[in-house]
Amino acid sequence: MKRNTLTSLALLVIVALMGACGNNAWDELPSDVANFVNMYFNGEVQSYTENDSGSVVKLRNSATLTFDSNGQWTCVDGNGVPLPQQFLFDRLPSPLYRYMESVEQTLDVMKVQRTTVGYKVWFADSAINYDNVTETISYFSGSAPGAG
How does pLDDT run along the chain (148 residues), one tens digit per residue? Predict the structure, then answer.
């Protein structure tokens, strides 16, 4: 009986230590970043890294998300997979989203970058700029994400 108790206790300690040693990238995410990931992406967090300008979250078999030092998204790259519709609807300015709807491109957005003056949006075969002040949209020549 005593031997079984000691064996059980030893196994319990080993299991507890194994759990404590496990490095789960999800646990490293700041709460605002975790909320963003949870709201728009259901992928498993592969890695989380911080740098001077912010942080980067890589999801397994999915998107790469870049955040500034305040935890605000600056770039979402689907890495060849279209971005979630809810993300586009919630996070892009209404005129930009309405334009993308009018040209039937909302299902084809591969990457979005937020800049100090507006947004850049990459589709599978083209790319556009959106200016926050003038609300103008212009196409630019830029390789589609994942190309060449």
Answer: 555 544 444 444 443 433 433 448 788 888 999 999 999 998 789 999 999 999 999 999 889 999 999 999 999 999 999 999 999 999 999 999 999 999 999 999 999 999 999 999 999 999 999 999 999 999 998 665 554 3
Residue with tokens 């212009």: 138
Tokens 């759990």, located at residue: 19
Q: Which residue has the tokens 């003038």?
A: 134
pTM: predicted TM-score of the whole model, two decimal places: 0.78
- With tokens 């589709």, the residue in question is 123
User: Which among 132, 107, 102, 129 has a CA at the least distance from the CA of 117?
Assistant: 132
- E strand or H helix that includes residue 2: helix 2-21
Kindly list the domain boundaries of the chain, sorted by start residue: 24-139
**What CATH code is assigned to 24-139?**
3.40.1420.30
DSSP, res 34? H
